[in-house]
């Protein structure tokens, strides 16, 4: 396996304290600046290049940065494709880079590739090859240019989807003619928590201690309320650059916790966009020296957990008379509550307690504008007689391929018996 080592200290150029006041140094400013330095600056020379090592306490200018920002398009048609897939835990993202001979516009133009599945918990060592099938392309905000990010799913050499390949089953559901006709829309609210690197404690919290109680942090502003806004903003712009259908961000109820929303997205696209956004967030937090967690209850006690609320509608729900379709969908969801809960993320029982804006994990409920229910219906939906529903049960670490396809399957393809339907209608007391 190839390894990439971090730049050594010898590559770092230290800049004096008074020079840092002028702001970031561009290559042009750097060239001008070193020519004006006094003899106190230590100058090392060779027959090929010069390195100006300026001693400083405060900042560093790393010349590797210049190479990272190189625009190679004038010199080659080749591009870098970052192949991304989901690892053996079902929540980790993995990736590796491949040179492609020219820019591409569709995944079908890309070759299949492979990786060592024994190192990701997805194959035995004696038969470790797993094949990557390119499925969706996004622009690469880290490398820029024509370089791309490639969302892949995973198969055996014989072409069978491996057990962690949840996209394959989702694609089958979303390609069903009945599902296609209903044009299922999804809007996914991905919550996440930022942790300090060394102590694995939320960003902005005193080490081993607690901030003030929840209240001022949600959508707040100020250094004593908001921690990690630069990461949230960086993700926002990276998603827009990549072509991810991000629709907003906000600070969450627990300090150090954030949310971004993706959608409305149609069918399988919702899962592709969430997984790519998660990959971008992992890369951004990696660069920022902060740890990302999608644990649904990262801090026990009187603190909100982290969910992945999924807003959902079909063509029938969005049309006149759609409210009746929404209530029928809720009825079907009530009958398959256990099936959905079992597929909605690991550790979700620690979050769905009936407190902190959640419903109890064992009890299905719905209500208008009620964030303490399993399914919430908006006031506008009730008023207009059409719209969407919000499934508030999924955990922050849920697989969006699983959740979106299961919602479509339950509400479009699955048919309950008349007896079960009647019993469920009585139980959850559906009202017009």
From TrEMBL:
| Organism of derivation | Coffea arabica
User: Which proteins does it associate with, and in what oligomeric form?
Assistant: Homooctamer.
Broadest EC class assigned to this enzyme: ligase
The reaction(s) this protein catalyses: L-glutamate + NH4(+) + ATP = L-glutamine + ADP + phosphate + H(+)
**All residue ranges annotated as the GS catalytic domain in the record:** 163-432
Q: Where is the GS beta-grasp domain?
A: 79-159
Localization in the cell = Plastid, Chloroplast
Concerning InterPro entries, the annotation shows: Gln_synt_N (IPR008147), Gln_synt_N_sf (IPR036651), Gln_synth/guanido_kin_cat_dom (IPR014746), Gln_synth_cat_dom (IPR008146), Gln_synth_gly_rich_site (IPR027303), Gln_synth_N_conserv_site (IPR027302), Glutamine_Synthetase (IPR050292)
Q: What is its main location?
A: plastid
Look up keyword Ligase and say if it applies: yes
> Does the record carry Iron as a key word?
no
Give the protein family: Belongs to the glutamine synthetase family.
- Write out the entry's keywords from A to Z: ATP-binding, Chloroplast, Ligase, Nucleotide-binding, Plastid, Transit peptide
Q: What is the lineage of its organism?
A: Eukaryota, Viridiplantae, Streptophyta, Embryophyta, Tracheophyta
According to its UniProt record, the EC number is 6.3.1.2
* Disordered: annotated segments: 100-122
What name is this protein filed under? Glutamine synthetase
